[in-house]
């Protein structure tokens, strides 16, 4: 079914309180996104106060659009952008697998996922979970301790950091939390910027070095075995084959110690004056041989 058709059908069944809330938050995030948010009240443990807080928090990421909507079970995903147009995935009642066996998944009141587009890929940069603790039971000591463990488990399992908002602190200064969220993502952007710039720089340096090496590999240098003469002891140099020069890449691979001695070209046995009966002469003698 088309999203607009589904939303109109859902809106027709809104209560008076829900319609009043719709009139209030559609000015912040638009009508479609507002209907989608309010629709969660009937299928999730989502209060109207929580929905209003979520709408206020995400209004700074305008324009807000629905990217996914599912009627059964009810699920909605919104999309927005930061000022610098980093795409932001907005997920109310975001589900995460519970680490306790046979337990229901955890639900974060609002999960915000910051993304960056690199080439053809959309990369998730960081994630932030916002919990609106609007029920008195949230402040019972035993529940607070459970919350600490839950937040730690969610962070370790999904990489989502948590911000918790109490009704009192929200009423006192809602802008504090809105600014805190934006600052958190701006820190993430700065980190990614630094990583990306360093990666680009390193890649360019690597490409330049590779290019330089390729050029050097094609350069000729004097044969290091025959010292550019082209022959040794009257015979063609086994490395340059009489050309007197070799590629620099070849020169770097040569172990010169392997060419310390050469067969004596005028050996006449034990009385040979050139090699003194050894049958070999040094490379220096072979180079200067006439």
What does this protein look like?
There is one protein chain. With 290 residues, the protein is α+β, with helices and mostly antiparallel strands. The protein has 2 domains: 3-95 and 102-200, no CATH class; 220-287, no CATH class. Helix content is 42%, strand content 24%. It is built from 9 helices and 12 strands. It has helices at 3-12, 16-29, 31-39, 48-58, 141-158, 167-172, 174-217, 248-253, 283-287; strands spanning 65-70, 75-81, 87-96, 106-118, 121-132, 160-165, 220-222, 231-232, 235-236, 245-247, 261-263, 280-282. It has a 6-stranded mixed beta sheet with strand order 1-2-3-4-5-6. Strands 7-10 form a two-stranded antiparallel sheet. Strand 4 (106-118) and strand 5 form a beta hairpin. Helix 1 packs across helix 3 and helix 2 runs parallel beside helix 4 (48-58). The chain is rod-shaped, with a radius of gyration of 37 Å.
Provide a brief overview of the structure.
With 290 residues, this protein is an alpha+beta fold.
For the structure shown, list the relevant keywords.
six-stranded mixed β-sheet; 2 domains; two-stranded antiparallel ribbon; alpha+beta; 290 residues
